[in-house]
Amino acid sequence: MQTYFEFKKNNTSLKTEIVAGISSFLATSYIIVVNPSILSQAGLPFSGVLTATVLVCFFSSVMMGMYARNPILVAPGMGLNAFFTYSAVMGMQVPWQVALGAVFWSGIVFLLLSVFNIRTYIVKAIPKPLRYAIAAGIGLFITLIGLANAKFIIQAPATIVGPNELSPAILTFLVGLLLTAVLLVKNVKGGILIGIVFTTLLAYPLGRWWGPETMVNWQGVFSAPDFSLLFELDLVNSLQFAVWPVIFAFVFTDLFDSLSTIVGLAEAANMVDEHGEPLNIKKSLLVDAVATTISGLLGSSPATAYVESAVGIEAGGRTGVTAIVAGLLFLPFLFLAPLLSVVPAIATAPALVLVGAFMVRPIIRVNWLHLSDAIPAFLAMVLIPFTYSITQGIIWGFLSYTLLKVVGGEYRKVPVALWIIDIFCILALFVH
């Protein structure tokens, strides 16, 4: 194992990788319940989607660890599940069986792009300033998710967002945040995981006797798996011309979500080769493509590389063992899904907030005095969290980069592949 995953080369150990895997799982496990809650609104059975979600997370993450040897989890993507439900099924009146077929065919397109190495060329076409900005933007995005999960920031009509009033839940989050920060400053091994466990224990009384909010609500222990969605996709009708926009939206969004996540995590953690490219990028993207394909077969919206993998990476995870451990931890929840109620959102929120501090590091490598680099980088960085969409951030980052380079007489710095990407960016704006 140490030889295959190159522990010495990556300056890690089995213990570190296991702790990192547990940390990533705890930060990502919410998807087991959240994905079914969204897709069930499209008419899919909640229990069936839950089973499909667990299977997708298990197979995809273990595959990422074993084959690509990267510490990146793969799970049904947030945003993609919302598009599946609210745009495709509810908005365009596409039957959910047909929408699952569209997920499958988008995965096939991914596979073709990956097999012929087109996705790797796309990665190389992303300008360095935008790579650094995407990493920082994802960091800010993760921090925003953490603050929102803790309800530290809430919707405010006058100011869009604003701080919440102090409450036992908010104070619990702040104590967990400060403790986790102290552990990280002190370089305590497994500091993030310790912070999650401590905050969970601190939050437990909130489910019993502190204040009106119920943060920890036991929902039982055991639930039987439901395999009713396996192979329920409609492969024939999903190829109709009317469904092509749905397939395109899945392809484009998943493509750039996964690309930007992998590139951003690699830049933030310095997991790059001698040419500055993300390690094992081709294999990682191939796994992502297979994950999307099996998502349609199992009964879920498309899977993608998960930004919350940054929690495990910051905990020291540098090899595929991190992803394997996390993937294996999903499997018991085929039967034990109600146990997830033990770990409330405010317990993982501190980890998400603090991970953002590490992911913004690459932004110092942008030449902020060169405005044709700085402005696109800035737009990409801020639009990812402000639009709550990685895809929107990179669309406007790419388009503004091309425009400013052409207007500034630096059009030779725009690769041919980036011109092609720009065309798809414009098309994606109309599809969404």
UniProtKB/TrEMBL annotation:
Membrane topology of the entry: Multi-pass membrane protein
Domain of life: Bacteria
Subcellular localization, as worded in the UniProt entry: Cell membrane
Coiled coil: none
Residues spanning the membrane: 18-38, 44-65, 72-92, 98-118, 130-154, 166-185, 192-210, 230-252, 321-340, 346-364, 376-399, 411-431
Keyword Transmembrane: yes
Keywords from the named record: Cell membrane, Membrane, Transmembrane, Transmembrane helix, Transport
Primary subcellular site in the record, as a coarse category: membrane
Family under the similarity heading: Belongs to the nucleobase:cation symporter-2 (NCS2) (TC 2.A.40) family. Azg-like subfamily.
Entry protein name: NCS2 family permease
Organism: Pontibacter populi
